[in-house]
Amino acid sequence: MTGRAIIEIENLSHTYMKGTPMEHVALKGTNLYVEEGECIAIIGHTGSGKSTLIQHFNGLMRPESGKVIIDGLDLSKKKVDLKTLRQRVGLVFQNPEDQIFEKIIGDDIAYGPFKLGLPLKEVRDRVKWAMSVVGLDFEEMKDRQTFALSGGQKRKVALAGILALKPKILVLDEPTAGLDPRSRNELLDKIKRLNKEEKLTVVFVSHNMEEVAMLADRVYVMAGGTDVLSGTPKEIFTDKEKLQQHQIGTPETVQVLYRLTDLGYQVNLDAFSINEASEEITKLLVGKKEGCRHVQRI
Amino acid sequence: MEPIIRLENVSFSYKINEKTKVPVLRNISFSIFPGEYVAIIGHNGSGKSTLSKHLNGILTPENGDVWVHGHNTKDSNRKRDIRQSVGTVFQHPDNQIVATIVEEDVAFGLENISVPREEMRQRVDEALNVVKMSPFRHRPPHLLSGGQKQRVAIAGVLAMQPDCIVFDEATSMLDSFGRKEVLQVMRKMNNMGMTIITVTHHMAEAAEADRIIVIEGGQIVMDGPPREIFQHKQELENLQLVVPSVSQMAEIIHNQFSDFSKDLIQENELIVEVEKFIIGEEVS
Fold first, then answer.
1. Measured between alpha carbons, how far is B89 from A273 in angstroms, rounded to an integer?
2. pTM for this model (two decimals)
3. Which fold has domain B5-243?
4. Which of A130, B7, B206, B272 is the most exposed place for a label (fewest CB within 10 A)?
């Protein structure tokens, strides 16, 4: 992280169908701040404004009121260089089938780079690279038809199409929903590597708390169209009161540890991974064992 | 006992163009019996969604037959009966919710089959009760949380009084709160005698079922109770699947304490085992 702000959102509001009986306030006074190279998770229930918020990142929506500055580009100004903006911000939607339109996988992934006017060889290299990142075999898959893909494979193609644009900021809406466990883990590893090694800034929306715990440097919790809470996964997942107040779930591992503390056992709640959580329980069992011996000795 | 659903040598492929076809299901045979709670798991592209669409005739087999209560799903005259006995809850509740008020949405299917008004009231009340959404009956669905919406979608299917409900990745868009709500409803309906089939990527969810069918390359590769299936950790990993987090934790703890059971698949079991272990130690 460089300490340089790449996304600054201040007091952002948006109302759908304003002035009609269908009027619906989606965002009211949301703030969000992302440093270059950070990996940020946005969580919150359906209807909390997450999707509306991320559509502001690449100018699909313009601020109704409030400030949105993406990598130095001020979106509240009338004239914005949208082409540059969209080159810098890659957005992968929740339903990948929505953004695949070519018949052949290779063509679909190459579409963006071609539109950037890159030479053929560069396009081919980028397609190859993007496919390897998402775990699609280039030779085997490049000429396959897109409509015959399973949901999980479509998701990978959509992500590859965005990565091939080499954005500075990658925005993902529920990146792993519908993926099998191994594809999920592989994809999360890849995203983590892109974030850490290639310094790609990542913002993702997720309901999967394992994923949030594993990837995010910081978490924003959205409720009723505004950011109600933010902090590191550790700060968020160990604050029982806040978790209940906002009905936030926890990783399965943390759920087990919470239940043990409810029973009066002392365990650390910030053991997110399977190994860490097992370690916590092992420590508890060792402690009890020794405690007992101690009692017996007396 | 007569099966509710019986698949006999079912094969299916998607046609890519004139020459090439991608086979998705290969010669699958199995039966689902009344009152069963079955989870179907498999990696992306293994054919499980295509399979689930065969269970009430959304798709019909290219070769082989699917029988629902003895009716062939290829028999278009029986399609209505078949859909009425086997309902489906899809991944996105938004695709399944049609009305602007919760109770009207639940009543939608009943209106289509001209259920008398009084009976309709009663069925809607019951269905909303089972999914615990009665307090929300006059609300617009789009203001509900994902788990709540999915429960409304379930109520809509439930009101049709099917014998069996297929959940096609119905929890994959929900957070752990929403998922828990839906799982409780599934368990409750199963206890009421409903046959439940759930297609899922979530192993903790599959562990809740009484039987797991594992699909790979369009074929059944394992079929048995969860405890048995999840003992085959290596085989599952080869199939791009994993055992539930709880089982992984139990195994790690077992490696430290051989008395600690590694044969655990549900969160409750892990908690009980920890307590038993500690209390056992204190007694000795």
1. 32
2. 0.86
3. Rossmann fold (3.40.50)
4. B272
